[in-house]
Amino acid sequence: MKFRIYRYNPETDTQPSMQSFDLNLEAGDAMLLDALVMLKAQDDSLGFRRSCREGVCGSDAMNINGRNGLACITPLSSLKQPIELRPLPGLPVIRDLIVDMTQFFKQYHSIKPYLINNDPPPETERLQSPKERAEIDGLYECILCACCTTSCPSFWWNPDKFVGPSGLLQAYRFIADSRDQATAERLDNLEDPYRLFRCHTIMNCVDVCPKELNPTQAIGRIKGLMSKRTV
Amino acid sequence: MVNRVVTGAHYGLRDWIMQRVTALVMVTYVLFIAGWLLLGSSVDYDAWTGLFANNVVRSFSLLFLLALYCHAWIGMRDVVMDYIKVAHLRLALHVAVILALIMYLIWSVQILWGF
After folding, report:
1. What is the ipTM of this complex?
2. Chain B contact set for A191 (CB, 8 A)
3. Nearest CB to A200 within list B12, B78, B83
4. Which of A14, A16, A23, A88: CA 20 to 30 A from A112?
């Protein structure tokens, strides 16, 4: 099984380069992460992130044959060889497949990703009807792996100003939550030519999301609510 | 001036809606012209000038062109905002696009009512 993997160590390399690897492995049921772990046993200088190895933590997001995805839930049998692995595009590379996610999380924090409710907390939990709870289906599942945001050209051009698909999906997750009381504030915070309206409905985010979520739809709903309060 | 990432201009929704409305106007006009071309018995100079002698058609054409220029303004502004990082240059390009589009509008009126 052949691999071509992006290598870059800023301490020793002046330029990133692609290194070829050969692995004696039948694809079978194995996932890409299994192969990476075996490659690391071959060459322990290879750097990548991983944790839960089952698509829940979002650590091992990378660019696999030109498409962002999670290595741990990408079957080797689905990949054309040589399997080309690169770090997520649009973020600074720390080493090999490890990127600096600071900008991504900065945008995430900018949408206040927590429930804002000024009522005194009840004795038990804040209740929701099943229908209200269903409103956040397809939103709360986001694991912040950054596959979508780093596949978005608008984020590549303006990572410091455009919130990005993941952040906007999360923003809508709190707008849609019946327990949240800060809808107007949240819409004010997003009503900006850069923060929200850099989205040109390219839909790379929908294409790559490993959890099959739909940030474009969430962004559309934010725009819909904004329109509703304006007209 | 300090170097800060500044956002929060609190506009964008109107342009986003306008881009969609102007697209609808343009589609309607294109369908109208396409329908006229397909259904018209002859397409020659006389038929064409005859069509545009009608003030309703002239007005509709102007509405179409106005929609086109508004649509083009938003599109061009988006392209400039995406790719041009220097604020001075961005402003200069915005002004250039606006002035060019205003000139096109004047020219459009001249063409539609000038024969």
Report:
1. 0.89
2. 10-13
3. B78
4. A88
Domain that residue B63 falls in: 13-113
Q: At what angle do helices A164-175 and A215-230 cross, to 10 degrees?
A: 60
Q: Can you list the alpha helix ranges (DSSP code H) found in chain A?
A: 32-42, 102-110, 130-134, 153-157, 164-175, 183-190, 204-208, 215-230
Q: Calculate the CA A87 to chain-centre distance.
A: 13
What pLDDT shows up at residue B64?
98
- Say which amino acid occupies B50: G
CATH number at residue B64: 1.20.1300.10
Q: Within a domain: residue B108? A: yes
Residues A137-195: tens digit of each pLDDT:
999 999 999 999 999 999 999 999 999 999 999 999 999 999 999 999 999 999 999 99
In degrees, rounded to 5, the angle at the alpha carbon of residue B12 between the alpha carbons of residues A103 and B81 is: 55
Q: Does B53 touch chain A (CB under 8 A)?
A: no
Residue B5 placed within a domain: no
Q: What is the pLDDT of residue B42?
A: 80
Number of domains in chain B: 1
Task: Examine residue B26 and state whether it is found in any structural domain, yes or no.
Answer: yes
| Distance (Å) from the alpha carbon of B57 to chain A's nearest alpha carbon | 30
